[in-house]
Backbone:
């Protein structure tokens, strides 16, 4: 078995709708707009991948974002994913049937449970949940642990998908904690998504 071509995944509206729901977003009602809406919310992330290498999507859901980034980015992405949702990890392993071992189920208070899973990646992407409050010490420790999965010379990218105000508020807390990003990138297609990166 090998990785499923993206074209065949997105050509069936029902499959696409399921994939988006499995990625944690509700698809718009209008069929023709489903993939366009997803693409306009995520494609800007592909610009933040500077070179070929391993990419860990921390909170990878069903792997659909990774699969799309492989398509949108000119560099070769070796996909890795971690999630706490067993069903979504199962789907990600089906999506990347040639490298199922690259997808790891963790418990909420664990980062990587399975032996043999790499401890460092060329790029680590973390889409921060809306409910994560970085003024809490536990979340600061969590952030550090995820950041430390970035290989020396690699890139750590944080994504924020809430609202322009809420995203800026999260950045302000991180900045007050001393985190200095190399760049903060607003999704040019929407004010709801923003990403910020730092090179390790
Ligand atoms: C909105 S989806 C993000 C999917 C994809 N990364 C993206 O950016 O579109 C968030 C995922 O994070 C996972 N998640 C939540 N808490 C987690 C934790 N403590 N460790 C790992 N994954 C977690 C959820 O199960 C969910 O699949």
Residues:
């Amino acid at each position: 078995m090998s990785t499923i071509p993206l074209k065949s995944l997105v050509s069936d509206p029902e499959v696409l709708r399921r994939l988006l729901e499995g990625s944690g977003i509700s698809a718009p009602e209008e069929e023709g707009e489903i993939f366009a809406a997803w693409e306009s919310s995520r494609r800007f992330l592909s610009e933040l991948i500077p070179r070929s290498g391993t990419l860990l999507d921390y909170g990878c859901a069903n792997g659909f974002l990774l699969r799309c980034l492989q398509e949108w980015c000119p560099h070769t992405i070796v996909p890795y994913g971690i999630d706490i949702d067993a069903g979504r990890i199962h789907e990600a392993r089906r999506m990347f049937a040639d490298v199922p071992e690259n997808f790891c189920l963790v418990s909420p208070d664990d980062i990587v449970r399975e032996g043999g899973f790499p401890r460092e990646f060329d790029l680590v992407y973390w889409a921060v949940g809306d409910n994560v409050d970085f003024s809490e010490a536990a979340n600061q420790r969590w952030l550090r642990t995820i950041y430390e999965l970035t290989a020396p010379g690699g890139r750590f990218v944080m994504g924020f998908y809430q609202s322009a105000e809420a995203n800026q508020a999260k950045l302000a807390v991180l900045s007050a904690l001393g985190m200095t990003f190399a760049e903060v990138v607003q999704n040019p297609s929407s004010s709801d998504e923003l990403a910020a990166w730092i090179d390790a």
Notes: Helices lie at 6-10, 13-21, 34-42, 64-72, 86-95, 137-147, 164-176.
